[in-house]
Design a protein that fits this description.
By secondary structure, the protein is mainly alpha-helical. Helix content is 29%, strand content 6%. A five-stranded mixed β-sheet has the order 1-4-5-3-2, with no helix packed on it. Helix 1 packs across helix 4. It starts with 27 loop residues before the first strand and ends in a 7-residue tail after the last helix. The relative contact order is 0.23. The N terminus is likely disordered.
């Protein structure tokens, strides 16, 4: 894979051996940058992470699984769906959500990956498509059957506003101050570590293949992972809604081979996050 446009984690799948060029360059997804807008793993899956970091990551992965499992039953008439996906995207979206949820069972997961906590001076973590620092970086190259792909968690992941909260960081007790369900909030107020990790997990080529996504490469260099759309601004959620609008209202203006909504990682993650909070809080819409 060539350099891709997202700032999040290095993940991988070991359940399938894909035919790839031995000299292929890893493709990295840089996670969402600061200033712009999954599931329990065994301790041995974490590399160079402190106990505190492992605890944060385990909770985040568990939340990602919860978001994916809940989104599988999304109401397609809700704005959580219609902000990001078309009816024809539902099958692939549900496939991705179910594969994210499947990782919650480390004894029987259909793919594997490692998680590395980057050092403070990591050069990759200091660069992103918008010039800011990255939350994490994902190697989305197809699995070679030898080494699990790696999700690199950048230092910023543990301090950024986008990832400081978990699904249980606040109560769901109605329109009260500091409640998840307080009115007049915006999408950024609902972002969690689990949201970011779910987004990144969809960049795993083996996860996307298991989810049933179509091959975006060729027979000799197959590629199934989601990507990060460009051309709709640097805010990932705004870009996700813009991509959907383009497919619905300006389809003839799209370039050949343009990413479909279900192939953009943030369309999958944002729909899952919105549906969770719409369900838990009784919202009808979440504004940008």
């Amino acid at each position: 894979m060539s350099k891709l446009t997202r700032n999040l984690a290095c993940l991988a799948a070991a359940f399938s051996v894909l035919a790839v060029n031995a000299n292929a360059i890893p493709k990295f997804h840089h996670a969402r940058d600061v200033g712009k807008q999954l599931l329990p793993r065994l301790a041995t899956n974490f590399v160079d992470c402190s106990e505190e970091q492992k605890k944060k990551l385990r909770t985040g992965f568990a939340d990602a699984a919860t978001l994916g499992r809940t989104a599988y039953d999304i109401d397609q008439s809700s704005t959580a769906f219609t902000h990001y996906l078309r009816g024809e995207d539902a099958t692939q979206a549900k496939g991705l959500w179910s594969m994210v949820a499947a990782n919650n069972d480390p004894t029987n997961a259909p793919y594997t990956f490692s998680v590395r906590c980057a050092k403070t001076n990591d050069k990759d973590c200091k660069a992103s498509r918008t010039g800011g620092a990255s939350l994490a970086i994902t190697d989305s190259q197809p699995d070679d059957g030898k080494h699990p792909r790696e999700m690199k968690i950048c230092p910023l992941f543990f301090t950024a506003d986008q990832t400081k909260n978990n699904l249980d960081s606040k109560k769901y007790d109605g329109d009260k101050r500091r409640s998840w369900c307080q009115k007049d909030q915006h999408f950024k107020d609902f972002e969690t570590a689990g949201h970011t990790l779910l987004h990144e997990m969809t960049h795993l080529d083996s996860l996307a293949k298991a989810a049933g996504l179509p091959n975006r490469g060729d027979k000799d260099n197959a590629h199934y992972a989601t990507d990060d759309v460009t051309g709709f601004g640097d805010d990932y959620v705004v870009a996700a809604r813009g991509l959907l609008d383009a497919w619905v209202n300006h389809k003839d203006d799209l370039a050949e081979g343009a990413l479909k909504p279900f192939q953009n990682a943030e369309n999958i993650a944002a729909a899952a996050t919105e549906w969770w909070f719409i369900k838990r809080c009784g919202f009808t819409d979440i504004n940008l």
